[in-house]
Write a structure and sequence with these properties.
The chain has helices at about 20-45, 50-60, 70-85, 90-105, 125-145, 150-160, 160-195, 205-220, 235-245, 265-270, 285-290, 290-300, 320-325, 375-385, 390-395, 425-440, 460-475, 485-500, 510-520, and strands at about 1-5, 10, 195-200, 225, 250-255, 275-280, 310, 330-335, 345-350, 355-360, 360-365, 410, 415-420, 445-450, 480, 505-510, 530. Helix 1 (about 20-45) packs across helix 2 (about 50-60), helix 1 packs parallel to helix 6 and helix 8 (about 205-220) packs across helix 14. It contains 19 helices and 17 strands.
């Protein structure tokens, strides 16, 4: 049998019995709807970016640790080929269909339907995506059933389900952009009417912490509103402004993130910054950008129309940008966590305090904190540019808050010190957290690190996680490696440390919950544990 579908001439064997064809089509559609829940969850967690659902599917299907996944995925692919090649031969086709059906419902093992750390949120956008995904499959499989090839079309639909979710994402992208534009226009009009001074912040890391610091310092003098949580993209900032910005607000502190060039430029068109801040440049999201130079180019869009730009003088990736902005006559404020010759600097005085310098002049001091000193310096610099009196800054620095899940320090009822750094996933933050762990460890107590490693570091991911494993093993008595994404790299780092004479206890667990249970059952008064990063459960 041959048919022409969308201009493509397809040749098949004889069609099968209509009853079996329609029955297998119905079963296929049910399986697709059930299994799609997992892939829709992946799409939602990956910000609805087309292509990422298939990318994660390939990672799961090639899982080297759960060998059942590549084995069943391979069997499903072979069985699918048998069904497509012999749709009229009921016995092999039927067996092949059942293999694909079983694999669709149970593979990949480890990627749950409900999700523990990242459950599916039934938003309007998710519902639209789900309905379109199902519709595409119903039309495709139904067409196959019409031609007596329901079983063959069904196995194709089941095998290519993640790709179908990506296809639906492509189809809905223009609709979502148009729908979002209404909220963006409303936010832009509200912003123009209230007319606060806008502080825009970006960087590979340190954005949220710096935002929290600036809001804390500026609110001593001005009515200040900061974008909440990680509302740092077009949709999040539009929502933050529409729902949170109130009349009389004098300063808006907006965190701006990006996954590609042009996104920050678009944000700055309707949230024009008066003061722009770039906290850092590093390999975070290197997988998406390809190089640090591309990251600099994308982040530097925030500086274009700002009257003042605050840059991290300690970050060598920003050196060329600083020279270019200076040559363009832009007012540039350089901040540092080690060089008092910077415009604003913060340094440890080795006596338990941090000293703030402005124009090489000692401005004030504050209690020591396990945070990035350049982030504090940037917050002070912005506050000075806004016109916050130095006395107010000095007073507020003594009560500087720490952003949630970013090296928060607490002691539980059992006397165990907890370092919660679960929202950090970058090399600089990891080094800072390990330093905090080392300062709190004692010879008679255990020092534990729980980590899945760092992600989205592109070609540097293995190397950076190997460094993390080595550094953790040199400090901690116990290293608990969570999941499989970076297990090999972390273990290589552990091995390197062991060759140097360090012998930590190594524990491998599949999920963070297992590590938490181990901590509760094994640590006692005086012990300290660092939770460094936490990956959502759609990662391996």
């Amino acid at each position: 049998m041959s048919i022409t579908l969308l201009g493509v001439h397809l040749v098949f064997g004889s069609k099968m019995n209509p009853t079996y064809s329609y029955l297998s089509a119905v079963v296929s559609i049910v399986a697709v709807i059930v299994s799609s829940v997992r892939w829709l969850r992946v799409a939602q967690r990956e910000h609805y970016i087309p292509g990422y659902t298939s990318r994660f599917a390939l990672r799961w299907y090639s899982d080297r640790y759960r060998v059942i996944n590549p084995i069943l995925a391979g069997l499903a692919a072979i069985a699918g080929l048998v069904v497509v090649a012999r749709p009229d031969d009921l016995l092999p086709a039927g067996i092949g269909f059942l293999v694909v059906l079983a694999a669709t419902l149970v593979v990949p093992r480890g990627l749950g339907y409900r999700g523990s750390t990242s459950p599916l949120k039934y938003t309007r956008r998710l519902t639209t995506l789900a309905v379109l995904t199902w519709f595409i499959n119903v039309v495709f499989v139904g067409l196959g059933a019409w031609f007596g090839l329901g079983m063959a079309f069904g196995v194709v639909a089941m095998i290519l389900l993640p790709a179908c979710v990506d296809l639906a994402l492509l189809f809905t992208l223009p609709i979502e952009r148009k729908n979002l534009s209404k909220f963006v226009d409303r936010a832009a009009k509200k912003l123009e009417k209230i007319s606060p001074r806008v502080v825009a912040i970006t960087g590979s890391y340190g954005k949220t912490s710096t935002k929290v610091y600036i809001a804390h310092l500026a609110s001593s003098t001005f009515t200040t509103f900061a974008s909440p949580a990680s509302f740092n993209n077009r949709a999040g900032l539009a929502r933050a402004i529409n729902e949170g910005l109130s009349p009389g607000t004098e300063v808006l502190v907006a965190e701006m993130g990006t996954f590609k060039k042009g996104e920050i430029a678009d944000l700055c068109r309707w949230i024009p910054p008066d003061i722009s801040v770039i906290t850092s440049i590093g390999p975070v999201h290197l997988e998406r950008f390809g190089s640090e130079d591309s990251i600099v180019e994308a982040k530097s869009e925030i500086t274009k129309n700002a009257s003042v730009v605050v840059l991290n003088a300690d970050n060598h990736y920003l050196a060329d940008l600083a020279r270019r902005l200076s040559s363009e006559g832009k007012r540039l404020v350089m901040v540092s966590g080690k060089d008092i010759n910077a415009d604003v600097a913060v340094k440890d005085d080795d006596e338990g305090n941090l000293v703030i310098y402005s124009g090489q002049r000692r401005m004030c001091s504050m209690p020591f904190l396990d945070v990035s000193l350049t982030n504090i310096a940037a917050a002070v610099a912005v506050s000075l540019e806004l016109g916050v009196p130095e006395s107010n800054i000095a007073e507020r620095l003594a009560t500087l808050p720490v952003a949630k899940n970013r090296l928060n320090v607490s002691t539980n009822e059992s006397g165990i010190t907890l370092l919660d750094d679960t929202y950090n996933s970058n090399p600089a933050g990891a080094r800072l957290a390990l330093g905090a762990l080392e300062r709190r460890k004692s010879p008679l107590c255990r020092a534990v690190i729980v980590t899945p490693g760092m992600i989205e570091l592109g070609k540097k991911q293995f190397e950076e996680n190997s460094f993390l494993g080595r550094a953790a093993s040199r400090i901690a008595t116990d290293v608990i490696i969570v999941g499989y994404t970076n297990r090999r790299a972390l273990l290589e780092g552990v091995s390197n440390a062991e060759a140097e004479g360090f012998k930590p206890n190594i524990l491998l667990v599949g999920r963070r919950g297992e590590a938490v249970r181990w901590v509760r059952e094994n640590l006692t008064f005086g012990d300290v544990v660092l939770y460094e990063n936490d990956l959502p459960d759609h990662f391996l």
